[in-house]
From TrEMBL:
Positions spanned in the full protein: 724 to 1007 of 1007
Boundaries of every EAL domain copy: 24-278
Protein name (record): PAS domain S-box-containing protein/diguanylate cyclase (GGDEF) domain-containing protein
Source organism superkingdom: Bacteria
Amino acid sequence: KAKQRGRNTREYFNQQLNEDSLRRSQLEQDLFKALERDEFYLLYQPIWSIDGDRIESVEALIRWQHPERGTVSPHEFIAIAEESVLIHAIGKWVIHEACQFARELSDSCKHAPKVSINISSSQFLRGDVEEQLTQEITALKLKGSDLIIEITESILLLEEQKIYQQLESMVSMGVDIAVDDFGTGYSSLSYLKKYPVQRLKIDKSFIDDLESNQDTQSLVSGMISLASSLSLKTVVEGVETQSQLDLLKQFGSPMIQGYLLARPMTGDTLLTLLQKQTTTPAEK
Ligand code: C2E
Ligand code: MG
Ligand code: MG
Ligand code: MG
């Protein structure tokens, strides 16, 4: 009987494996058509000052509206795109869209929030991110300081001259560089000395057990102090509850992002929200 069960389990796993790889290769094929079929769009999630009275920046988050499968998470399709040249076309589209939205924000608000753009390591390694950004900034008459570039720790560990030069040149235009998912990648912090970085985004995984775990509290409070003593701006990601927010206030976190204050939303909804904020400060 045990033998029978063993075989069933194995069959089950094999079947699961086949279904997964089938889904993946189908998604990959569909991904090649998604750009020309205009199936991508961006949502924007506000990044707030800790008091929740100001939207300092907004993170552009890509969505794929698949014709049959509905919305596919970027966790799934960005990984697939990164295995081919697709990531470059998608990445370029994201930069263009996000910069256009930055233009729209500047035109419609007095103190427009910055737009924060996720860039994949492979885009950086190819070496044309800085050029794309410069083109958009020039064409749309943006300021570098309207934009933030989010990169992962892993890219900074490659110690490539090409990466250093791209970052340097973006920073000289006024663009901020943010290290995304900070704390999850590697233990070496020496890259903070070598690379021009202005921001850290503390990963959501540290926030999930913040209320229950003393060690996590020490880690998060330590990361916030570290950032502040290095004159880096910090954002804590994935804040979902009031008690997490209260703790982060205690720790001196300057900025937060999370469902507690707002989920990712369309550009139009965000513009409306910003309009309300600037016209009715007395109601707060
Ligand atoms: P990320 O850059 O770390 O973005 C934060 C993710 O956390 C987003 O997921 C956001 O919706 C989610 N999030 C924010 N607040 C909360 C919260 O309070 N609770 C929970 N449970 N989640 C929260 P999303 O939009 O699904 O994106 C996932 C990842 O996909 C991003 O992680 C980023 O690595 C990647 N990604 C998204 N858009 C792009 C893009 O345009 N280009 C590239 N290269 N990667 C992207
Ligand atoms: Mg990000
Ligand atoms: Mg992040
Ligand atoms: Mg994250």
